[in-house]
Amino acid sequence: MNVTRFLFACALMTAQAGVWADLAVTHVNILTMEQATVLADQTVLVRGRKIVAIGPANELSVPEGVQLIDGRGHFLMPGLTDAHVHVDPDGGRDLLFYLANGVTTVISLRGDERFLALREKLLPDDAAGPRLFSCGPFARDIFDIETGVETVRHIAAAGYDCVKFYGDWDAGAFVAATATARELGLLSVGHAPRNHDFDLIEASQLRALAHLEETVYADPALNAWLDTYRGRGDEPAAYSDPGRALGQRIESIAQRVAASGVWVIPTNIVIDAYLKRFTDAFESFSRRPYLQYLDPATRAEWHDNRGHGRAARFHQQFRLQQLMLQAFYKAGVPMALGTDASQAARLSVMPGWSVHEELQLAVDAGIPAFDALKMATTNAARLFKRENEGVIRAGARADLLLLRTNPLEDITNTRDIAGVVRAGHWWSRSVLDARLASLQEREDNTASAP
Ligand SMILES: [Zn+2]
Fold first, then answer.
1. Which residues surround the ion ligand 1 when the cut-off is CB under 5 Å?
2. How far does residue 85's CA lie from ligand 1's centre (Å)?
3. What is the whole-number distance in angstroms between the Cα of residue 342 and the centre of ligand 1?
4. What is the mean pLDDT of residues 400-413?
5. pTM to 2 decimal places
6. Given 3-state DSSP classes, what are the helix, strand and coil percentages for the chain, each rounded to the nearest 5?
C-alpha cells in the first residue's frame, strides 16, 4: 500500500472507529530520521507503545478523547539511545536523568541478576526511566575455547541482552566465543583483547567495540606516539598535531575497521571529561548547572583530584580520537552513540546530559548533525537489530523527543526539551523538572539531617 492510500485508510479508520489512539502530537514538525529533512505541520498518533499514524495535520483527524500535545512550532524526533552505560542496579537517580534528557533506551554493558530485575521494573510504559537492556557479567580473561563458549551460553541462557568481552583472551577462544554469541543472537560488545592486535577483531565475530579507544590501544604506532606525552604537564601549545604526525596511520586504521564490519561506540566524552577534570578547565566544568545533581561524595572526590597536572596524554588522546572519529565516519564505519556514563559519574560523565555532549563531540569531529543523531537513534536500533525503533513511522515504537528548536540547525537544540514520550507515555518538561527538583530536595534534607 502506498503512503497516500495508507494515510487515507488511517484517516478513514479514525473517522469511523472512534478512539483508536491514546495520544496525539499535533501540528508538529517531524524529523523522522529516515530522511535528513523536517516534515512541517504533521500530526502523530500513538496507541499503547506504538506510533499508529502520521500525516499532515490538516488531513489526519484526531479522535475524541485522546491526550493532546500541541506541537506547534516544535520538533518531534525519536527518543535517544545511550548504547554504553552503567546504570545503578538498585534503581538510582540516573534513571530519571536519562528520561529527563530524552534518553529512552540505555544499554548497560555490565550486569548481574539485579540488572535483570531492574529491566523488569522499567518495563511498564509509565516507568520513570529509560528502557534497559543489560549485558551479563564480563566475559573476561579466558584462555580455552570450551570456557569461552560456555561463558557466552550461560549469559544467553540467563536472559541477558548482550555479552561484554573484556581483558586478555586466547585468540581461538575469542573467535569461538564471539561466534557463539552471533549464533545465539546475543549482541557482543567488547574491549579488544589487549594481548592481541586488531587482527583478532577481524578474525572474530565481535559485533561492536565498546570504545573508539580500543582501536588506539590495538595499534603500536598510535600508542607509541601517545606514550611520548605520558606524565607531561598540561601545556597544549607545546603539543604536536596528531593529524600531521599520524594522518596516514589514522586513515588506514579507519579503512581497516570499516572493512572488518565491526561497529564502534566511540565514547569520546570519557577522554574529554577526564581532560576537563584534570586541567584548568575544571573550574568552568564544575560549574555546569546539571552538576547540582552530582552526589556530594563524588563532587568532593572530583575536587580533590582536580588539575593534577598530568593531562598531556589525555589532551593528545582526545585530539587523536576526534580525528579518528571523523576518519571512521568518512570510511563508513557503523557507529552508535554511547557515553560510558555511570550513576556516580565516576568517569566524570553525567548520565543523560552526557548523550547531548557526545552528540556535540560528534558534530565537532565533522559529522553532520543528522548523521550524529542517527548514531543515537536509527543506528542504535540497527545495532540491536530492532529495525522498527529509532524512527518515526507508523508501527514504530513510540519513544519520542519533543524539542522547542530544530536539532538539524544546531545540535545543542537536542537539550531544548519540551517533553518526552516514553513507550507512549507523555512526560512534559514541567513534570520532569518537578521530579528532578524533588530528587534534589530529598538530597538536601539528607545532607542537612543531624
Ligand atoms: Zn563501560
1. 109, 340
2. 6
3. 8
4. 98
5. 0.93
6. 45, 20, 35
